[in-house]
Amino acid sequence: MRLTILTKKLASFEPDGFPFLSIYISTESNEHGRDTFHIWLKKELSERGKEYEENSFEAQKYSEAVERINEYIQNEVDPAANGIAIFATIGDQDFFEVVQLDVPFSESVLHLSDRPHTFPLIKAIKQNPAYAVLWADTNKAEIYVFGGEHRIRTDVDADKPVETIQNTVTQGTKVGGWSQGRYQRHIENFHLQHAKETVAELEELMRKRDIENLILCGDESTIIPILRPQLSKQVEEKVIGILNMSRYDSAEEIREKTAELIESEKAERQQKQVERVFDAAKAAAGLGSLGIESTLKALSNGQVQELVVTSSLDKIEYQPGRIEKILNEYAPGNDNSPVETMPLVTEAEQIADQLIGRALASDADIIFIDDPELLDECGGVGAVLRYNINATANG
């Protein structure tokens, strides 16, 4: 299942009165090169199972879920995956989904509630968007895609390029009876054609996969001056850096070097995003909100264009009473619901999930901010709005 579909499915899950398991596992090896997550998972599942010993129905359902989880871990985990997220119901509904990612989660945690805990998964997705890397010389080019949905552990091989473009080798070709000028023009035309073919493949791939960032790798004195002018204006604006790389040993080397550029770009972008939120909130048009209370209202009204939230759950600050009032005001109003569907306002995880769920439902962008100090003034949450309700009403 594609991540975009799964995340919306999780966010729209309606509590049915039974527990819901959300398990996040960081599967990176320890300092001795050993996997220890199996031990942690076994212990956590055993401890939580004790909560259902007095309820035969839930005890049975929990046991079935644990068996399913263990079977998956034993047989289907990719050894190269660094993060695993498992979602399973302990009730009448048959809900079992697993995501394996290249990136680890910040910590392993088992969350048991009446609804999915989505914050860590959405954060992992949003903080690791897909980016394309084009490595090229004068007769060969390879395109890699790192991060994003296409780097979920599936049938995509991280050590191989998505596209390889190979043309006739020109280095070392004998001139023969050609004049040097004629031969040079021939080589230049060949390089230009190679560049055009490469860029055409690249742009088609970026379009299909909705990739917003591009890094160019190659010899800055030969291929890059030929390649870059062939990029369309739209793709040219997505170039965030150039690496002078004439040779490389593996895709992992490219990943490591380009990741540094991505991290630098991300930090700069986050800084600008926070400034954008504060500027929008302070402007006369009032197209910004600061704080979880006003942002939750705006999300519930479908006003939010960009939700900005701190990456640290413990940095989200709010008054539970005010949040409860807002949630009641915007409750669906289904009096026939067999269970209480309101989240616990004292649990920051559930309130954060409410923000994320409403953002996903209204197709708002979600931006996580790594530096907690940037959002200290507004309790870790803010937004840029599509429109101002008050301004519309007064108009």
Summarize the structure in words.
The chain has 395 residues and is an alpha+beta fold. The chain has 3 domains: 1-127, eRF1 domain 1 (Translation, Eukaryotic Peptide Chain Release Factor Subunit 1, Chain A, 2-Layer Sandwich); 131-248, eRF1 domain 2 (Nucleotidyltransferase, domain 5, 2-Layer Sandwich); 269-395, 60s Ribosomal Protein L30, Chain: A (2-Layer Sandwich), CATH 3.30.1330.30. The protein contains 12 helices and 13 strands. The chain has helices spanning 3-11, 37-49, 56-75, 119-126, 180-209, 223-227, 233-236, 251-282, 292-300, 320-329, 348-361, 389-394, and strands at 20-26, 83-89, 96-101, 109-113, 131-136, 140-146, 163-166, 213-218, 239-244, 288-290, 304-310, 365-369, 381-385. The strands form 3 sheets. It has a 5-stranded mixed sheet with strand order 7-6-5-8-9, sandwiched between helices. Strand 2 (83-89) and strand 3 form a beta hairpin. Helix 9 packs parallel to helix 10 (320-329). The longest helix is centred in the C-terminal third of the chain and has 32 residues, at 251-282. The model is unreliable at 150-158 and 169-178 (pLDDT under 50).
